[in-house]
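User: Study the chain.
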Amino acid sequence: HFSEGPAWKMQQRGSNAPLKFVKRRDDITLMDDPDSLKVEMSCGHAVAPETLTQWCDSVLDKGEYKFTCPALRDGTKMCGVTWPYEEVRRVLLLLGEGWNDFEERIVRKAASEYTEYKPCPGCQSFIVRKDTSNLCVHCTICSAAKGQPFYFCWQCLREWEGPASIRSDRCGSGGCVNPDVQKLQGCKDVTLVEVEETVCPSIRACPTCGQLVEHSGDECKNIECQRCKVEFCFICLKVTRVCSKSSRPFRPCPGGVVPRQTSIPVWEK
């Protein structure tokens, strides 16, 4: 349990807006341990750092990165207030261990929503692709280290073969293929039991942002992409609002099952 140790005193002294520690029950777990200090969050609910860690882990496991308070107000309605990232960070830092890995997960989730980024094969630094139609990407870090321009292929993540050029299909390396396309081509089929046992690929690339999404076979044919939050049909690959004009969630699409995708849609934000 977290108690009044050096970390607590440091937080009290070292911040213009110190964390407020209280001795009352944890509003998320409803556990009332008198020996465990809780932090009163900006929404007014109290939570133990250990509880907050577990909650944030569950949020990240769902592919999300924004943390909202799950405690109940008046015993019936979820609070739902979004906690500022800095507030969550300061509370989790009280536990010390594992913070770096946790923060990296948050950064990856946030970056995947707002930008296209991948690790450079030369230095492993994450690079943002400015031109989403060009596979030839320049790494400034490797260029500075090597004393000459360094380019790599966004698709196969190898050093660019030949002169830098604008390419949208592939680079000059043998076997240059998109690993996500390989997953789409090689995934198993899934039976949508509740959609008249329609059979379709178990993995699809979201038609809006290109994120790979897997269907378990349960429930209806529509599924929400955790990256762009747009719902689409796994059978016809149309966004739900379009598909619903000619079909229902538990009915097959009039045009049948769209074949396995051979390219990844680019998110036009």
